[in-house]
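Progress note, sequence design subtask.
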C-alpha cells in the first residue's frame, strides 16, 4: 500500500522519539503486535498517533512473515479513547475538520486493508474514536471488564473515521443505528451478544493469556492462506461484486496451491493414510 509524499513529510516533521514510544511494535513468530502506549492519557488518539498508526500498517503491508496482527492498548484500563482533552481543540473550520477526517480515516484504512487479519484486543474501554479503531479491525476480543461505546453523538458530532460504516457492516444497519443514536456504552458481554465482539475473557483470566489462547489456531495457518482469508472478508465488507472478488480469489488460491508447503502437507497426510 503506497504512502504519499505529503504524509511522509508530515511524519518526518512531527514524529520525534517521544512519538515513536507512543506506539510500540514487535514481532513474535508470525504475529505483528502493535500497542498504543499512552496509558496515562487513556491511549487517546492524537494527530501524531494517527499518523504513526498509518505508517506502521503501511510499512508492514505485504510482509510475507505475518499470519496476523494484534492491536491493543497499554495497561488494563483503556484500549483507546478518541481525541483527548485539547487534542483537536484547534480544529475550528470545515476545511480543518475535513483534514482531520482524512487523517483518521486514512490511518484506519491502512488497518482495514492490511494484507492479513487484524485482531483488536480490547484490554479496557474503547470510546468514540477508540471504538471506531476497534471496528476498523477484522475481529474484536475483549477482557471481562472491557467496554465499548460510540459516544460521538454526546459531543454533537457523528462518527469521524469510517466507524459508522464499519459498525453497520459488522452488526447490521438497524442495530448499529440504535447504538449510534443511543450512545450506549456496552459491557464486553453485551458487545458479544450483539456480535460486535467475538470472544470475552472469563472473569479473573489474565488477558494476555486469553489473547494467546484465542489466536493459537490462527498462528498455525500459513501467511499465504491468511492473506486469502483476509481478502475474502474485505471483499465482502466492501460489497464487491462476486465476479470481481473472484479474480483475486483465484490468484491467491493458485499461489497457495503451488506453494511447496501445500504439497509437503499433502504428502504427509497421504503418507499417514497409506500406513493405516
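Output:
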Amino acid at each position: 500500500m503506497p504512502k504519499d509524499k505529503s504524509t511522509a513529510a508530515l511524519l518526518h516533521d512531527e514524529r520525534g522519539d517521544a512519538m515513536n514510544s507512543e506506539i510500540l511494535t514487535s514481532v513474535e513468530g508470525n504475529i505483528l503486535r502493535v500497542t498504543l502506549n499512552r496509558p496515562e492519557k487513556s491511549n487517546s488518539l492524537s494527530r501524531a498517533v494517527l499518523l504513526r498508526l498509518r505508517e506502521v500498517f503501511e510499512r508492514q503491508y505485504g510482509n510475507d512473515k505475518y499470519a496476523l496482527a494484534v492491536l491493543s492498548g497499554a495497561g488494563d484500563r483503556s484500549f483507546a479513547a478518541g481525541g483527548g482533552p485539547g487534542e483537536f481543540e484547534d480544529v475550528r473550520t470545515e476545511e480543518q475538520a475535513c483534514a482531520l477526517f482524512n487523517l483518521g480515516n486514512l490511518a484506519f484504512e491502512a488497518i482495514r486493508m492490511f494484507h492479513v487479519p487484524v485482531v483488536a484486543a480490547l484490554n479496557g474501554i474503547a470510546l468514540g474514536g477508540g471504538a471506531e479503531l476497534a471496528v476498523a479491525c477484522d475481529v474484536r476480543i475483549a477482557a471481562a471488564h472491557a467496554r465499548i461505546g460510540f459516544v460521538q453523538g454526546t459531543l454533537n458530532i457523528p462518527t469521524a473515521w469510517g466507524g459508522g460504516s464499519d459498525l453497520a457492516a459488522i452488526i447490521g444497519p438497524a442495530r448499529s443505528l440504535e447504538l449510534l443514536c443511543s450512545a450506549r456504552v456496552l459491557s464486553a458481554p453485551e458487545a458479544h451478544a450483539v456480535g460486535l465482539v467475538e470472544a470475552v475473557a472469563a472473569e479473573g483470566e489474565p488477558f494476555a493469556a486469553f489473547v494467546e489462547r484465542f489466536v493459537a489456531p490462527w498462528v498455525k495457518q500459513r501467511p499465504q492462506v491468511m492473506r486469502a482469508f483476509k481478502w475474502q472478508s474485505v471483499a465482502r465488507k466492501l460489497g464487491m461484486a462476486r465476479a470481481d472478488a473472484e479474480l483475486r480469489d483465484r490468484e491467491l488460491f493458485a499461489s497457495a496451491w503451488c506453494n511447496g508447503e501445500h504439497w509437503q502437507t499433502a504428502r504427509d497426510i497421504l503418507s499417514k493414510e497409506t500406513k493405516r
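The chain has twelve helices and ten strands. Work on this subtask will continue into the next period as scheduled.
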